[in-house]
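Can anyone check this?
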Amino acid sequence: MKKIQIFFEKKAFGVCSWLGDVLGISTNVIRLYFIYATFIAVGSPIIIYLSLMFWMNIKKYMRMRVFKDSLL
């Protein structure tokens, strides 16, 4: 159970932390709003969440690639 919690805190909740940093809002508030919106909109915010997670991974990959190219 602890491994699952660590995985989600590391991977899945990165979107809420990033969004909180960008908007200047507490991460817990964003998570609560996301949960409420998911129940009200019958799961459609999950698509937004997954697209943000995908975008964050692409940005991280591109930064690593640019950094690696600058070292050469």
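Reply from J.R.: I decoded it. The mean pLDDT is 79.
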